[in-house]
Design brief:
The protein has 386 residues and is α/β, with parallel strands linked by helices. It folds into 2 domains: 248 residues, TIM Barrel, CATH 3.20.20.70; 76 residues, Arc Repressor Mutant, subunit A (Orthogonal Bundle), CATH 1.10.10.920. 39% of the residues lie in helices and 24% in strands. The protein has 16 helices and 17 strands. It has a 9-stranded mixed beta sheet with strand order 9-10-8-7-6-5-4-1-11, with helices on both faces.
């Protein structure tokens, strides 16, 4: 039986599912469309109904972060996002210094709205650049060019965004080490507080999966990764997660809550959630209907979502799946607090991981070694439920 004794942090994720164009590597729930004003209103109204249906599950709990993702949320008008955030403020207990992030593409049409987004309370942007080099942007199916990306980031800074992230990929089709580092150097020159620098991976149900591009080999990609990490460290960006680097401790609180196995309420088409029901000693996984038109029709009804109780075995695995992404690992006590289980339930698996030099464990900390993070999938396989 699960036994929860500590309050678990709660974040809010809001999914806006439309993009101008679907990228060939993207496996998120996104659909090609520029939503007109009426559709934006219909969808935001549906998201608010969805939120209201969820309120009984989170009464009295404070929201520590909000993340508006997609899709491309910056396609929506400032007025539409303002209406959405006003509804959230009137229905939820938001932390006074809440981190409120919106994903944005670096196209000029979206960048023109940055002043407005800042005025209505968005205090952090995550800008999906992926590369500053036009040949790679073309291969990735991106609709902006390198100059537009730089201009958009400068517009974000001019709008008053002090805290912002740049999303950047490496290991691109036929990319060289010098080109990967050039992208990273350009990102650093724009002085973001946070850089998400991650390897391009081929996911199922994507165009790249059906027609795989020619990627650099694994050893060369690892060389890119190590060289990039050295560059980031040199310029003061501290790695705290496999692909996350923060300057002056500006870590993404929303994502950190995921990695520390906190709770999150997911609203919007295809949004996922995790809610710990302390009084019932159970953990719920929720999933909202993914097709936007049907989601709008169902929002506000129980049928808009499916939910499952997470088993004891799955909870332990899911904790490790998230926590082992963190470079410093987590405190040993956090396992008990967030899973409701004693640490002894994974003693055998931790001992095996330690014997392979993938994990360091003591009474205070569970921490992946550098080797463990390099071979993270192998490490996590040890904790898979039998």
């Amino acid at each position: 039986m699960l036994n929860f004794t500590e309050a678990i942090p709660l974040s809010l994720y809001i999914h806006l599912p439309w993009c101008v164009k679907k990228c060939p590597y993207c496996d998120f729930n996104s659909h090609e469309l520029i939503p007109e004003t009426e559709l934006q209103k219909q969808y935001i109204d549906a998201v608010i109904r969805d939120l209201e249906t969820e309120l009984p599950n989170i009464w009295g709990r404070q929201i520590i972060s909000v993340f508006i993702g997609g899709g491309t949320p910056s396609l929506f008008s400032v007025d539409a996002i303002d209406y959405l955030l006003s509804a959230c403020r009137s229905r939820l207990n938001l932390h006074p210094q809440i981190e409120m992030t919106m994903e944005a593409n670096p196209g000029t049409a979206e960048a023109d709205k940055f002043d407005g987004f800042r005025d209505i309370g968005i205090n952090r942007l995550s800008i999906g650049v992926q590369s500053f080099q036009n040949q790679y942007l073309t291969k990735l199916g991106r609709i902006h060019n390198g100059e537009e990306a730089i201009a958009a980031i400068n517009m974000a800074k001019a709008a008053g965004f002090i805290n912002f992230n740049i999303d950047l990929m490496f290991g691109l089709p036929e990319q060289t080490l010098a080109e990967a580092l050039s992208d990273l150097q350009q990102a650093i020159a724009l002085t973001p507080t946070h850089i998400s620098w991650y390897q391009l991976t081929i996911e199922p149900n994507t165009f790249f999966h059906s027609r795989p591009p020619s990627l650099p080999d694994e050893d060369y990609i690892y060389e890119m990764q190590k060289a990039g990490q050295e560059m980031l460290a040199h310029f003061g960006y501290q790695q705290y997660e496999i692909s996350a680097y923060a300057k002056d401790n500006n870590r993404c609180e929303h994502n950190l809550n995921y990695w520390e196995f906190g709770d999150y309420l997911g609203i919007g088409a295809g949004a996922h959630g995790k809610l710990t029901m302390v009084s019932d000693n159970k953990v719920l996984r929720t999933n909202k209907h993914k097709l936007p038109k049907r989601y709008i029709e169902l929002a506000g009804q129980e049928t808009v979502r499916s939910q499952t109780n997470v088993t004891k075995q799955d909870i332990a695995f899911e904790f490790m799946l998230n926590a082992m992404r963190l470079k410093a690992g987590v405190s040993s006590s956090l396992f008990r607090e967030r899973t409701g289980l004693p640490l002894s339930v994974i003693d055998r698996e931790m001992n095996e991981a330690e014997s392979k030099n993938w994990l360091e464990c003591n009474i205070h900390t569970i921490k992946p070694t550098a080797k463990g993070q390099r071979y993270l999938n192998d490490l996590l396989e040890l904790f898979l439920p039998e």
